[in-house]
Amino acid sequence: MTWITQLTPLSFLRRSAGVYPDKTAIIHGAARWTYAEFARDAQRLARGLRASGVAPGDRVACLLPNVPAMLHAHFGVPLAGAVLVAVNTRLSAEEVRYILDHSGATVLVVDSALLGAVEPIRENLETVREIVVHVDPEGPDAGSTVTDPTYADLLARGDDGEDLPWAVDDERGTVSINYTSGTTGRPKGVQYHHRGAYLNSLGEIVHSDHDPSSVYLWTLPMFHCNGWCTPWALTAIGGTHVCLREVRGDAIWGLIDEHRVTHLNGAPTVVTTIMNAPEARILDYALVVTTAGAPPSPTTILEMERLGFRVVHVYGLTETYGPYTVCQWQDDWAALEPTRRARLQSRQGVGMIQTDAVRVVQVMGDDVTDWASVDLVDVPADGTTMGEIVMHGNNVMSGYFRDPDATAKAFAGGWYHSGDLGVMHPDGYVELRDRAKDVIISGGENISTVEVEQAVLAHPAVLEAAVVGVPDERWGERPKAFVILRQGKKAEPEEIISHVKTAIARYKAPRDVEIVAELPKTSTGKIQKFELRNKEWGGQERRIQG
Amino acid sequence: MTWITQLTPLSFLRRSAGVYPDKTAIIHGAARWTYAEFARDAQRLARGLRASGVAPGDRVACLLPNVPAMLHAHFGVPLAGAVLVAVNTRLSAEEVRYILDHSGATVLVVDSALLGAVEPIRENLETVREIVVHVDPEGPDAGSTVTDPTYADLLARGDDGEDLPWAVDDERGTVSINYTSGTTGRPKGVQYHHRGAYLNSLGEIVHSDHDPSSVYLWTLPMFHCNGWCTPWALTAIGGTHVCLREVRGDAIWGLIDEHRVTHLNGAPTVVTTIMNAPEARILDYALVVTTAGAPPSPTTILEMERLGFRVVHVYGLTETYGPYTVCQWQDDWAALEPTRRARLQSRQGVGMIQTDAVRVVQVMGDDVTDWASVDLVDVPADGTTMGEIVMHGNNVMSGYFRDPDATAKAFAGGWYHSGDLGVMHPDGYVELRDRAKDVIISGGENISTVEVEQAVLAHPAVLEAAVVGVPDERWGERPKAFVILRQGKKAEPEEIISHVKTAIARYKAPRDVEIVAELPKTSTGKIQKFELRNKEWGGQERRIQG
């Protein structure tokens, strides 16, 4: 007679609304909502969706910035028994259409400022029955009138009725589907289960060191891996969510000052935006910045620390609920010379408290397309032998939605294949060396673009850098660096190349350095190397590893 | 294709040994063991048990103080696929025999200083095939020679061989059986599953605010609810375990000073021992004391805070892996007058982050012996209506070992019945009023002995107090207080009674106060009220509630 309870992040809002009914759960502009109000609105949303014909298992899509409604959706949609599809707000109309149709969403909630990505496709959507428009008093269209039902209308449909239970029948049921950025082909729908979302949330609390006094600023998009599960994690601990429509340095510093923000998450490019804002100053307390999405350079880590930030470096993918590894601090690092220490901190690290181990493997087998026969052999922990980073367990997706072939391929040998190449250090810490598709093969040697970028970034005039392989008659490929200089700083390409040669092997140094004003980036701040590469390769074919 | 991993606390030592191989995991006297050594010894124990014929599902009993071997056992026994039975070290030989036979343990590991409880029964044990003697260099019998195999022999049997996987096939499988103290009948074997132990451990980390720098002093016996899962929780976070054979004030203060202990757990009586030791002094940092086992009085909470302790008040039972509720701190309490604040902090509180809600119910049904038909009706949240405290979910035992009747009775209506009477306050916090069997029925009114005790303890001369119902011709029962005075302090019974009448209703005040030198206690520091009562009632029958 075992009376277990199915794990679900819904239980977190149930608890915090009971324990902290009058505590501020959400701040947006001048508005405040308590935990009791947050739970009430999640219930209204859930009932409103039910009243709108949403049945258990249906998908509900949200195209929203980091606003209170997006927090509601992380609870209200699964509370209705439905599956949340949080759509990237930077996508084109055609990309949005693909995701809505592929996920089979029946309801779409869209912010009025993002209607431009919906209007051109609204007549062509296969499954969406209703479009609900979110008009945000803090948004640019605050005064606009819309003909569609509004988010307020949707909540009003759920005003009356019994509270739905904060519980699920099966913790392995899907809570959300997150579409990959799809740089190599169509986006894939990554399915998260309630169990994984619950456990990852507890892991985020432990590793980002949250407690009930946490004030969390929403610099990381909630459409990105469900904001690394933070809508659930921060609600679990009973902290305060500070909403943010746009990642702008001035707005961020204003909110840090106003609310004494204790935590934020973001890609290193977001961190760069914060550090390079005119408002940047040294904090008188340790604001925890949890960063991932691209390896932060040792230089970035040192600068963040100088401003008073405490850096928690994590690593993962959409397929792993966001963070899966953490560069766990070791006490004896404190005594190291700062650059050496930051070098250790810039590694991707070890599995989080709730994950399985992380492995770096070479994929063996006569026929690697016969995935069931694949054998995964760990590379030696020597810090130099590259292999593919693979993950496993509760913190890994249950598969791609309606794509059994891609799922089978991703889980070759029973472990999820990240497509990232890395090394295992003797201390058991993983270091990312490259995306399989980005690694440069020069004269038969693999060159990690990440390693070259970190050497370029160590030059004092360099603000951002991206390295890609460009065609080279003699070597096949050679590295080329695209560089943004710091404001008011100057450096000649030759000077940067010489600097790099003092740090890493000469053959790894860029042949060319191009000073640019900006770098192409994804909506989540990742540099789009394929765009830089396409320009350089023209029509030439490039052999891709892995 | 969902590749979930079964939850088990074994994964915590796997991780910490990988992440912190050289960090001090265990301190015992002058000896130190790293996490790599801790994991190695757990593996040796597991292989040694296998080599000794222990098969998956077998029970392994340990009669040990809080020594490194007991920490090993919390990992090594389940690693061997077996079930840990940690036996109370204060039991008589006959009580130990009952537990060994009932659990069907095949191997017993016993500390040489505790052989007195084993020698008289060793020839009569039904299932124990081998007795292994643990000779502790820090123990009183350090130099003794034993004829049985020693713990060192057992580990040596496991020196060679492959490491066993830190994993289980079924998270709902039993990790340990903890026997209740059995004050009302035979001890019952409470079964914990891997899933519950894993989740409770994460909850302990969150609520006791552990981080990798935690230095935890083992004042709470590991045989008591597996030390509230702390062998697993502290290992998960990578803190340092400081072992302790005996709860003595001088030893505790010596270790606090030597290792700058950050955390300890214990019943209020343990806390009293610490606070009243001649070595007690005001700490220059906040040592977290997580306390449960009996409600701490507001007076105790204020004294602990004066010494610099940060009090985390939790509540639970053997059947709930130890803690299930926590008196979660509310920011607005900081502004309250200290006595009023301590009064709020002395309540048992709300469900922990990983538990279901806690309820206070009246058990309804025409036939309460027909448990399936039982209806549980929540009492009003008015702070006065008493009901039974019931719990549910992952943090509740899977049942009593080999006792389906007791299990069915304990889970009447689908919730675990604590046998504790309490009230639900308007803010959703539960407050324990009494054990069902301790509550005093006087002139038809229920009197909470806890409430009377807290009023008695507020008298400045009183160190400890226990209140029980004694026969009264007119009222049926009246409260009587047994009191230990503080050293050097004096108070007449009449003076204490008058003091109590200023704090609570006159009819609740004790009719008699008896000044005593000591109070009968269980091995875990709980006052044994039935002993006090038995003396007062002689042969007279007493009606018991609930």
TrEMBL record, chains A, B:
Residue ranges of the TM segments: none
Positions of the AMP-binding enzyme C-terminal domain: 451-526
Pfam family, one: AMP-binding
CDD domains recorded: ttLC_FACS_AEE21_like
Residues of the AMP-dependent synthetase/ligase domain: 14-401
SUPFAM superfamilies, alphabetized: Acetyl-CoA synthetase-like
Keyword entries, A-Z: Fatty acid metabolism, Ligase, Lipid metabolism
Family matches, as Gene3D superfamilies: 3.30.300.30, N-terminal domain of ligase-like
Superkingdom field: Bacteria
GO molecular function: ligase activity
UniProt record similarity statement: Belongs to the ATP-dependent AMP-binding enzyme family.
Record's protein name: Acyl--CoA ligase family protein
Organism, as annotated: Actinomycetospora endophytica
